[in-house]
Amino acid sequence: MSARKRISAEQRKESLKVVSFAVLKNVPTSPRKMRYVADMVRGMEVFKALGVLKFSNKQASSRVEKLLLSAIANWEQKNERKAETGELYIKTISVDEGTSLKRLRPAPQGRGNRIRKRSNHVTIVVDTFKKEQEQN
Predict the structure, then answer these.
(1) Which of 46, 64, 81, 102 is 20 to 30 A away from residue 119, measured at CA?
(2) What is the rounded CA–CA span in Å between residue 120 and residue 101?
């Protein structure tokens, strides 16, 4: 690895040490359905978002809820204290397309139609409100 790449990789690693996040990979749900749930909670305070996800009737909301709990636990682990109400918020939540399973379904006259079973990757970044106020 060249020196320039090593320096930029070290800078990326240092920036990730400050941020608390959680990643969920290869979720067998289409990214479009998962983005709908992600848009519901983007920018919300975490405990309010947990309430929204708990009572949502979308199947993807249970997976995002579990991922959000993991991100909160990661923040608590890094800061060595419990999260309080109104302190944390969802800074970013992104849904990326994962691998697709290609299957064939029988069609009329001996043909086959392709079925794509899509998957996605979800990333949640959690941050405190206080850091945002200090930067402004």
Answers:
(1) 46
(2) 12
pLDDT in tens, 106-123: 999 999 999 999 999 999
In which domain, by residue range, is 40 found? Answer: 20-103+113-135
Q: Domain with 96 in it: what CATH number?
A: 3.90.470.10
Q: For residues 70 and 40, what is the distance between their CA atoms, to the nearest angstrom?
A: 18
Q: Say what the pTM is.
A: 0.85
Q: What is the DSSP letter of 113?
A: E
Whether the CA torsion 37, 41, 43, 46 is positive or negative: it is negative
Domain count, the chain: 1
